[in-house]
Amino acid sequence: MKIAVLGTGKVGTALGTRLAAAGHHVVHGSRTRAGERGILTQREAVASSDVVVTAIPGTDVLSTLEDIGDDVLDAKIVLDPSAAFTPQMTMAYPGDSVGQQIQTRFPRARVVKTLNTMNFTVMVDPLASVPQATAFVSGDDAQAKTVVTGLLADLGWPHDSVLDLGGINTALATEHAAPLFFATVRSLGTATFNISISRHPSGQPR
Ligand SMILES: NC(=O)c1ccc[n+]([C@@H]2O[C@H](COP(=O)([O-])OP(=O)(O)OC[C@H]3O[C@@H](n4cnc5c(N)ncnc54)[C@H](OP(=O)(O)O)[C@@H]3O)[C@@H](O)[C@H]2O)c1
Predict the structure, then answer these.
(1) Which domain holds residue 106?
(2) Atom number, ligand 1, closest to the C-alpha of residue 60
């Protein structure tokens, strides 16, 4: 697939490198580094791709996509791993989510929230968090979720580790797991873990 990764930081580099290694055509879209090898302007990167990865600060996602434009975003799949915090590291949008905001503002884009509940190292190395590993997905478009689940497989996520929570309204739940994530980092002294769901092996309700 043709994938535009917005952002050249930790998440963008990790996802871009792994997806390219899996055979995808990956370009980065950057405010600051366009012209370097494999790096375009944000608008050029999105225009040339089917999937857009928003590996940029959550509080800047909407304004960045506004600058890129509705016309360019039309019908794109937006894989959104972002998290949005205030400078004090509290939730920037209590009771709301970046994923929902993108979908509401760009109704013709197909937003899938995923990978936001873990450290970037685990995003591309889920087996570091075995035996339990969960990648949540939230989105309104079933086909977009199927495509993103395929990309998760390319990142190393087994199919049964992917938990579809439902519509993009459920992105609120995973974005608001951030305080749990940071409290766990402080408690464990490492970010190499995963927030996962444990189920009875039969999968049946008790
Ligand atoms: N780090 C993690 O383990 C982790 C885990 C889960 C979720 N996330 C989320 O994933 C996103 C990326 O995190 P990261 O750790 O990769 O951050 P990062 O290392 O700081 O990189 C973010 C990148 O976004 C771009 N950027 C910076 N300020 C921007 C702005 N004002 N507007 C548009 N683009 C801007 C920059 O790329 P250019 O200069 O090339 O444009 C920068 O390299 C964030 O939303 C973060 O909360 C991170």
Answers:
(1) 2-188
(2) 32
CA-closest candidate to residue 176, choices 70, 61, 41, 85: 85
Q: What is the pLDDT of residues 125-179, one digit of tens each?
A: 998 766 678 999 999 999 999 999 999 999 999 999 999 999 999 999 999 999 9
Does the beta carbon of 57 sit less than 6 angstroms from any atom of ligand 1?
yes
Number of domains in the chain: 1
Q: Is 203 contained in some domain?
A: no
The answer to whether residue 169 is domain-embedded is: yes
Give φ, ψ of 161 to 5 degrees.
-95, -5
Q: From CA 159, how far away is CA 148, in angstroms rounded?
A: 11
Cβ 68 under 6 angstroms from ligand 1: no
Ligand 1 atom nearest the C-alpha of 121 is: 3
| CATH code for the domain of 178 | 3.40.50.720
Q: In this structure, are residues 156 and 133 in contact, taking their beta carbons and an 8 Å threshold?
A: no
Residue entry with tokens 């909407």: 62
7 lines ligand 1 (CB under 6 A): yes
* Residue 168 is assigned to a structural domain of this protein: yes
Question: Tens of pLDDT along 40-69?
Answer: 999 999 999 999 999 999 999 999 999 999
